[in-house]
Predict the structure.
Amino acid sequence: MQPSTRSILHVDMDAFYASVEQRDNPDLKGLPVVVGGGTNRGVVAAASYEARKFGIRSAMPMAEAIRRCDHLMRVQPRMSHYKEASRKIFAIFHEFTPLVEGLSLDEAFLDVTASVKLFGAPEIIAGNIKQRILDDTGLTASVGVAQNKLVAKIASDLDKPDGLTIVTPDLYEEKLDPLPVRVIPGIGRETLKRLDGIHVSTVRDLRCATDRYLEPIFGRFTRVTRDRAAGIDNRPVVHSREEKSISAEETYDQDLSKPDEMNRELLRLADRTAARLRKSSLAAGTLQIKIRRADFTTYTRQRSIKPPASGTDQIYAVARELLITWLASNPGARIRLLGVAGGKLAPAEQPDLFANDVSEDTSVIDETVDEIREKFGSLSVGRAKTLGKL
């Protein structure tokens, strides 16, 4: 049985990136707005509620979004503005509880169990948080209140935008049963197809299905999946979430078809990823490249880095090695998207100042480049190799 005394909030900002843009530019209010790639080959990062009426959603190809709404307003992402709004929002969360589990810039779980005596019932805390966010940022949030994370997250999506939904255990069947089965975490597209094959389309269908039908699909996770459908979830709110990876990727207006073009773009991405690692004082223990061909087929290739690294030359060398190996198996490939990601992150170690190693020179170069970019912006300096043929 799950603890009956927990009070969990799931706070989800409403169309966060798009709402920030509409807040900062009154001319965009009431209009269908998307934030994302400035070309028709990019994807939608966020869509306003006005845009969603046309069936536009995040991760949709920009060309498809434009087809659905010919008067769509497109805005380039401004991450610094979104991060600043997020900083203010999370500061508000921490005024009510130290148990804040951030899921992204605009979404978090809060355990307010110990805050009730000080701030009032969970729904009062939720209302106060919503009002504080509106007062401090001019943005709206939807909040779900429940006794566990699963139900709180589902509840926050039931009355968007600007909603406040409370789901107590006695309402689980009434609120959860009619919902599509995809609201249960871990059920993706392929699993949905298999569930459709056994006529399981709602949470109630999943909750009531027998092991005979579910075990071939979920195996040893059958019981926990059925528990989720019944609103049972014992996971605690984890107040610190480590960053799992740091990455950079780009979708190109024209497919990359020549090796020198691919290497040049790969160096740009490796430089961006390495700079972000150093800014966070982290080093990557694994390096992954992401490749999407012109036909949208996507590949990833990964290799360990020992010891973990954050230098641009080190990151690029591994990324290029992975790309060369992939190209050998895919001759003549045209590339639509490239990405470079560092994983298995660890605190960066101070380099050995007395080591007789050529990497010392590249470390000094990286430090100098980082200082210039910090002072004059990310576009103020770059590798010469990214400007021409490698």
